[in-house]
Amino acid sequence: MPWFSLGPENSLKKVSSKKGFQKELKEIFDGFPDNSDSLYAVADDDWQVTSNKSWVIKVNLKNYQWITKNYTGGVFTSSNKIYTLRMKDSISVSWRNSTVKYSIPSTQMQELGSAWILERVINDNKTIFEKVQDIVDDKVTYNHLTDIFRGDVPADWLFTFYAQQKKLFDVYNGNNPYTTFNRDGGFMDYITKICSTKFQIAKKDSWNPADIWIIKGSQTKIETEIDKMLSGSNQTIYELNDYLRIKYKAKEIMGLSLKKVSGKVAKYEEVNLDGIGSYIDTSDPEMNYDVSEKCFQSNFKIPSGKKNFTQDVRLVIESGGKPNKTYDFQIKANSSEASGGSNLKFEATLKGAGGARLGKAPVDQIVDLMKDMGQTGFVNNYKKYPGTIEEFQDVESKGKEYFTNVIRELLVKGMVTDIKNLKEIIENIETSYKSPDDRGTNTRCKLMGLDFFYSMHLMKDKMREFGTDMVYISQKKGTKKKDAFGPFGKVY
Q: Is the model's pLDDT at 190 over the cut of 90?
């Protein structure tokens, strides 16, 4: 796999022994129309000048279009996203549109990348990166990014890292008020342990989704203050939240949730900073979104060449008003590649905001809300649902008969689907169960999602309130009903 770590200057140095090619390559770099505000060229450092293989160089879309127009005779591949051109000194270059990805970066890679850029700006006393190319040109910064992303740092994530650090310090008028930063260890470990041991919160993110913590002053002093404040047996999470609000506003502790940036600039939002008194009351119908069965989406078609359908269902909620926001919940297996079953996760994306992921809604809180509204039919336990076609056909409680009635009712009420015929849907469920790719997880998760929809359907006039609660819970935004979320900033 290529190791993309060479900017234009170092790329030219790499081919210094091939004077004709070096001159031609410099002409191309100099001719690029976009070389100021975004990544414009980064080449594979593992390629050797003596190699018979083509040298891969990533360029942004504008420059890719320019070279394909001005240098004819090349060959297009990968749906016209790679253009291989024979150049001087018998060297071939595969110019690659930087939107092409060899692999999808993991969440950990993304978080580590964000953390590293902010660490460079904060801990290493660097100035803010003024453009994406500055990140590539800074050897220490970019080389570590290539290590994190295993040689291929996606252009869209480079832009995200640039936009995140710029927005964060734009908020503080270009000043850096912080002295310490960490993602792993340090204050992150400390606050996670407090949640677990003091308040029995097993997953820190279900209370506060901050990916990193930035601290001004002495971290030891802050931890001592928290220890003293929480000593004894009657303290609550609300006391910790109040302390963190005060420190956030004083710019002494900043917990940040970092999300992918897709627009021209990053956005910044402070969440739960005004305290419980400002939280909305979702039991007030005036505050509810328009949630109905028409928000439910489930596809049952089996794509050509496949033997099973997708495992997810979606809950799509419109906020209404101006501007309208669309919250798209993807409900699928917590572990998509699991064999033998998996419980569900509920992850929301805000459409119209660059597809920003809002976060996972804590499933235990969702189930608790369902129980509060009198619905106990759905359980987030895959063992309660059929994992094979035999179980689907034999089990009465959550088997074929049960789901035939569930799907019929949801179709009547307006669930959005790609198949309207109930008989065909049931046949596709049975076909999907028999697929070797099912793994005892795929079809079972689809049925779990449908059962979740059915429990919402049975709420009737309470469905709007429940859907609104889900939107707030997924963002860890406090309501009068769920008021224990911690304060944090969100950069997205």
A: yes
Omega within 30 of 0 (cis) for the link into 2: no
Cα(181)–Cα(118) distance, integer angstroms: 8
Q: Determine how many CB atoms are found less than 10 A away from the CB of residue 165.
A: 22
Alpha helices, DSSP H, located in 5-138: 8-14, 19-31, 61-70, 107-122, 132-137
Instruction: Estimate the crossing angle of helix 363-372 against helix 463-474, to 10 degrees.
Output: 160
In angstroms, rounded to a whole number, what is the distance separating the alpha carbons of residues 245 and 488? 8
The pLDDT, as a whole number, for residue 37 is 46
Dihedral angle computed from the Cα positions of residues 136, 138, 143 and 145, in that order, rounded to the nearest 10 degrees: -60
The DSSP H or E segment spanning 256 is: strand 253-258
Give the whole-angstrom CA distance, residue 468 versus residue 194: 30
pLDDT at site 174: 58
Task: Note whether 389 and 473 are within 8 A (CB).
Answer: no
Q: Determine how many CB atoms are found less than 10 A away from the CB of residue 437.
A: 10
Contact 211, 217 (CB under 8 A): no
Q: Which residues of 319-357 are buried (b: 16+ CB within 10 A; e: fewer)?
A: eeeeeeeebbbbbbbbeeebeebbbbbbbbbbeebbebb
> Can you tell me the distance from the alpha carbon of 156 to that of 313, in angstroms, rounded to the nearest whole number?
27
Q: What is the DSSP code (8-state) at residue 231?
A: -
421-427: long-range contacts at Cβ-Cβ below 8 A with a sequence spacing of 24 or more?
A: 424/300, 425/300, 426/400
Hey, where are the domains in the chain? 4-97, 103-272+481-492, 286-474
Give yes or no for a contact between 282 and 479, defined as CB atoms under 8 angstroms apart: yes
Which residues are CB-contacts of 154 (< 8 A; sequence separation ≥ 6)? 98, 101, 105
Separation of alpha carbons 114 and 259, rounded Å: 9
- Find tokens 């677990």 and name the residue: 196
Class of domain 4-97: alpha beta
How is residue 255 written in tokens?
């917990």
pTM comes to: 0.82
pLDDT at 38 over 50: no
| Separation of alpha carbons 270 and 263, rounded Å | 19
Question: How far apart (Å, rounded) are the C-alpha atoms in residues 58 and 34?
Answer: 13
CA distances from 442 to 253, 307, 428 (A): 43, 11, 13
**Residue 58, helix vs strand vs coil:** strand
Tens digits of per-residue pLDDT, 51-81? 999 999 999 888 999 999 999 999 999 888 9
Rounded to whole angstroms, how far apart are CA atoms 36 and 443? 49
* pLDDT tens for each residue of 83-116: 999 999 999 999 999 877 767 788 888 888 988 9
CA distance 201 to 193: 9
